[in-house]
Amino acid sequence: MREDHALLIIDIQNDFCLGGPLEVPGAEQIVEPVNRLMREYSCVVATQDWHPENHFSFLSEHPGEAPFTSIRWRDSEQVIWPDHCIAGSAGADFQADLDTEHIDLILRKGTNPNIDSYSAFYENDKVTITGLAGYFRERGITTIDICGLAADVCVFYTAVDARREGFSVNVLLNAVRGINNPVGTLRSRYDQMRELSINLIEKQG
User: Fold this and answer.
1) Considering the domain boundaries, does residue 36 fall inside one?
2) How far apart are CA 10 and CA 46, in angstroms?
3) Which pLDDT value is given to residue 124?
4) Which domain covers residue 101, as residue numbers?
5) Residue 11 catalytic?
6) Whole-model pTM above 0.85?
7) Is 28 part of a structural domain of the chain?
8) Which secondary-structure segment (H or E) carries 106?
């Protein structure tokens, strides 16, 4: 167990698992590997999407729009998502089989109704910080191993921002799953991560 390594678990929540409005194919398959991995780290952090009911990215806030399409919002593109992970709801809970006893810190993101938040380090405005980088530095963390959901959205943006903050980053391929919509997105995200010196590795635990 290396004291300078952390495990960062991204959004293993009911709404991203089987039957959820944003179901990631095969999401349940990573729960047991993640449970095993947690026992190898002295620092384990898990994130939760934790949205207000009126979050601007929700389909319910945009009558007439189709889910998964993009709109212009404050000079940027915003995907319209099915309503998901509403704060305090069962859908926002961790998947039932995830072993939360080994989690040191739970970071909730996406709480601002006017800013979406994919990354565990920054909200999507790329200015508002979550404080996670400071937490890791205080713990003496230099390397972050990332797992969770979804590989081509929140895992991707978290990994990119972790590198931006100067950490060494590994994405654990056996403990992530992606949406891959449209087809080819997941491969493209993996290629982008490799270009940023983010390591894509298998780690079984």
Assistant:
1) yes
2) 6
3) 93
4) 5-53+83-201
5) yes
6) yes
7) yes
8) strand 105-109
